[in-house]
Batch of 3 targets.
Target 1
Amino acid sequence: MDNKNSSRRSHRQIKAEGFFRTTLFSIALLMIVLVLGVFVTLVVQSVPSLKSLGAKYLWDQTWDPVNNVYGALPFLLGTLLTSFIALVISIPFSFAIAVFLGEYNPQGWLSNFLKSTVELIAAVPSVIYGFWGLLVLVPIVRDFETKFDILPYGIGIFTSSLILAIMIIPYAASMGREMIKMVPSSLKEGAYSLGATRFEVIKMIVIPYTKSGLFAGILLSLGRALGETMAVTMVIGNTSLMPTSIFAPGNTMASVIANEFTEADHTLYLSALIELALVLFVVTVIINMIGKRIIKSYTND
């Protein structure tokens, strides 16, 4: 009797395991289908623009819907500039927060308060950052530009990069903190026993052990910056001209789509905007693939 009950229980466990495996496989397959569906939809809707404009769409510098002239280069350049400048600005702060919370002060009221603050930064809606940027950051940047004899726009690529830097700090900081906390205590204790200082432990033990995770957090931050729309739209200046400097007004692919999509009054204009979304999709995929390869090479090292 016991053997029969045990056999039934084992049979149920096998069926449950099979159902669970099938569910996981179905969800994973659904994610692939969704991504491919988005890509195919963008390609299909971009066909009129692809046929009419061709490859010159990517390097043409003029965006003039009135005359049916569409060039994506100003927006592509604006997207890459704002994202990478924001990334460069945010990395020191993200890394400092991760090291402080993961190594220097992992527990206590100050640690909990800082973690809550960082999480709150990620939770604030982007439109709030946009309003804050217009009311607070733009006047500060304008004063800075005036002191250095730069045209005092206030708004522009540099301002939007500062906003983006603040917005993406929590992503790299949170992942970095978790990776640093996962470093085995035996490795650090062994280094301390040999006379290493805390700085040397961080430099020689913590960073090499967590470098792939830290880079993954940076990559996550970059992906967030590439797709940000509302906050950037409010402070970048929204001009279709090629940016002449990082302080000049500009536009990103996401912001121009948000600004002009409802105004697209004919097929080619709408298709050109959708092709812009396709370019943004492809750029994001390429950057993620490059990042994954770099992470893999770090892991192998």
Note: The chain has a mean pLDDT of 88.
Target 2
Amino acid sequence: MPFIGLTGGMGAGKSTALAALERLGAAVLSSDAVVHELYEGEQLRAEVIGRWGPAVAPDGVVDRSAVAERVFASEEERRWLEGLLWPLVGARVAAWLGEVRGGSGRKQPRARAAVVETPLLFEAGLEGLYDATIAIVSQEDVRRERAARRGHALVNERAARQLPQAEKARRATFVVRNDGTEEDLEQGLSTVLDKLSR
């Protein structure tokens, strides 16, 4: 079963692609969803409150936009958070992959691939973990409009943390464009899965 890293710039359509891959028979995991889950846990909540004070977790719930303001404003704070988060996310991904590949002993249909959506895949140097990588790319104006429509705070700062879309595409094993319909995107991803299963 191929282990695939899915990436792309902000607004390229990674989440839409992940949902399409699941419909196509892949087992999927969003690293962003893992981070959300970790923020709900006691360990990470205590760490960020200890670092930045209770203002980042009003009523005991971590405010991710308050955290983002701190990490995108300071390289030191970003490195601190990544040093804390990435090992935790990596452990979750490893456990999930073990289950998908049958380590849990549950009877379920074999997935066509195991796909992890990882926005900073190349930036974090994680490409070596995967059998193949897929970059979702889209026109710049379309990406910015999608990101703004989803209400992403600090769009410019977030985008500055990522490699240019062309560089992600250059490094990826496969590139799938997402300028058309969802059906077009799904067809492109289906072609990739077909190639990987040969």
Note: Strands lie at 3-8, 27-30, 114-117, 132-137, 174-177.
Target 3
Amino acid sequence: MDSPPRRPPPLPQLVIELRDLVVTYVKQQTLVPLQKLGRYVGFGVLGSLLLGFGVVFLAMSGLRALQTETDGTFSGDWSWVPYLIMIVVLAIGGALVWVLRGANRAGKEEAR
């Protein structure tokens, strides 16, 4: 026996199903990846801020040590030398990080 032909669902039901499908798709394909990206960026910004504060405090402590622990070597007309020393140290540290970052990227590209 043949069953009677199936009638398609009414148009309002199809529209509701289409809307639910689109909403689910948008959530899966855009919102969830954006939330993961936001978390990744947030941790990156927080980490860079903490590293930046650490470098600043370390540089200030080095400057203070140069000013107080050198028995007056950098006093009078030479009071600017500890600042220059710390600027040079920070520039060398920044250049070292820059070079190592470039080497790390080159190593990752070769691995591909």
Note: Residues 56 and 90 are 9 Å apart (CA to CA).
